[in-house]
Design a protein that fits this description.
Chain lengths: ~260, ~240
């Protein structure tokens, strides 16, 4: 527990260095981090057009759903995939200096939050294009986002530990994330599922994770079950993260 | 609280995970089959890098570590830096530790000299304002002038070393850990660097230096031990 608090407090060690990571990645490029925005935007426009044709849905209905879903999915999946190398990419640091390990996870998380902020511009673009109307409901998605990003941070900790110890886990997680992308309503809307197949979304934590942010943005209230799912996921992830930290923190330097 | 380092029966063992027992497959098979394979898989090869080390350092101590390659000098420094936790035994380090084991750690070729000062300073445990306070002094010391605005990849290796050295030695710490005496630059700069090193040492209370240079150990240390196969084989002085 104290490691987490200590890590959070040393904001320079993660927030500032995360900024440097991003600046380094896009140095000497004209658009800089807005390349992320560009590539996501191209994907959303191209695929959004394709899916509206295939599924015969109208753009004002589908586009905000698809844009919000894709942007949040990029955030979730990149964070989880990054967590696989959460410790190994900082091997040089971990074997030399004594920083609480959650600092490295926070650094990845901060990077992905910054990326997300860049991508969110696209969603605002969608809104402007579709004549956005303010609804107080939207405030729910702020709460939802806080819960989602917290859960994501916590789930990254055990993943990083597991992947530092067993080198077969990262490819497994990567393939799982690919399958989850298709099984989760991101480019298809949940009401398209036949009634007897609703368990595909109902028991999918990724669906609930998306819903608590996406539903208010597309004008729907978040279902109570989604809140319950995500709150319990957050609690479970926190417990597992604290346990992994307490149990294995002294071993990571030896595993790398 | 005065600085000290106390170690008793300190051991460090590195598990060697080869591809076979590092994989999850082996662990599952091991659980499923039991018997002989399990026995094989359980037998991790371990390398004992440090073996029953006893240390007791008080303020004013300047400890020199001597020994062949692979005798455990660097591992001991990393343990003292807190990166590795001893596998068994006790270690008690009191005081702020400055680890000068790799003075280039975290520095980035694409970032400018000034940015690297900030990155390096933060990794040494300074706050942003602390670095900003010292940045003028650091910049001046490096003699790099306008080069500090350029990306570090344009530097010669000597210039990058100077920068890393200048930041790393600007810290205030009770305990200084060094793997080989830091000497950088041409002869004029080396003189300045030595003065700066001595200044850093005077501000600190304990130093541990690993070196192959016996003359250097005799000059800067007031006590020295020889490590062999991870054990303290003799106390030199």
């Amino acid at each position: 527990m104290s490691d987490f608090i200590k890590s959070l407090k040393s904001t320079n060690q993660w927030w500032l260095l995360a900024w440097f990571d991003i600046r380094q990645r896009y140095r000497r490029s004209v658009l800089g981090p807005f390349w992320i925005t560009m590539s996501t935007a191209v994907m959303i426009i191209a695929l959004g057009f394709l899916w509206t044709q295939i599924f015969h849905v109208d753009v004002p209905n589908f586009l905000p759903f698809f844009a919000a879903g894709t942007i949040m999915w990029v955030f979730i999946s990149t964070q989880i995939n990054d967590a696989c190398t959460g410790f190994s990419q900082f091997e040089g640091y971990i074997r030399q200096i004594n920083l609480p390990l959650p600092v490295y996870i926070l650094r990845l998380w901060a990077r992905n939050l910054i990326f997300l902020a860049h991508n969110f511009v696209i969603f605002i673009g969608c809104w402007i294009y579709l004549d956005f109307a303010w609804r107080p409901l939207i405030l729910q998605s702020i709460l939802g986002f806080a819960l989602l990003s917290y859960t994501l941070l916590m789930v990254s900790v055990p993943i990083a530990y597991l992947c530092a110890r067993f080198r077969d886990i990262p490819p497994i997680i990567q393939s799982i994330m690919q399958i989850v992308y298709f099984l989760t309503p991101i480019f298809w809307q949940p009401h398209l599922l036949p009634v007897d197949k609703h368990y595909v979304t109902g028991n999918n934590p990724f669906f609930h994770a998306l819903e608590i942010v996406r539903a208010p943005l597309t004008g729907h209230a978040v279902a109570m079950t989604s809140w319950v799912w995500m709150l319990s996921t957050a609690v479970i992830c926190t417990v597992v993260a604290l346990w992994a930290q307490a149990r294995f923190k002294t071993r990571v330097a030896y595993w790398l | 609280m005065t600085a000290h380092i106390k170690a008793h029966d300190l051991c460090v063992e590195f598990p060697i995970y080869n591809t076979s027992n590092r994989s999850l497959k082996k662990q599952i098979i091991q659980a499923a089959t039991g018997g002989r394979i399990a026995e094989d898989a359980k037998k991790h090869v371990v390398v004992r890098a440090l073996d029953e080390i006893d240390l007791d350092l008080k303020p004013g101590d300047r400890l020199g570590l001597v020994g062949h390659n692979g005798s455990g000098k660097s591992t001991l420094l990393r343990v003292l830096a807190g990166a590795y936790t001893p596998t068994s035994g006790h270690l008690d380090v009191e005081g702020k530790v400055a680890s000068l084991l790799d003075i280039g750690l975290g520095m980035d070729g694409e970032a400018s000299g000034y940015e690297n000062i900030l990155i390096r300073g933060i990794l040494m445990g300074m706050s942003k304002s602390e670095v900003e306070e010292k940045i003028k002094d650091i910049a001046e010391f490096t003699d790099l002038g306008d080069y500090l605005y350029m990306p570090m990849r344009t530097y010669s290796s000597g210039m990058s070393m100077r920068l890393g050295f200048a930041v790393s030695t600007s810290t205030n710490a009770d305990i200084i850990l060094m793997d080989e005496w830091l000497s950088v630059g041409d002869s004029a700069f080396a003189e300045k660097a030595t003065a700066r090193m001595n200044d850093l040492l005077n501000r600190s209370s304990i130093m541990v230096l690993a070196s192959h240079d016996m003359g250097m150990i005799e000059r800067v240390c007031n006590t020295a031990i020889r490590l062999e196969h991870g054990k303290i084989s003799e106390k030199l002085f």
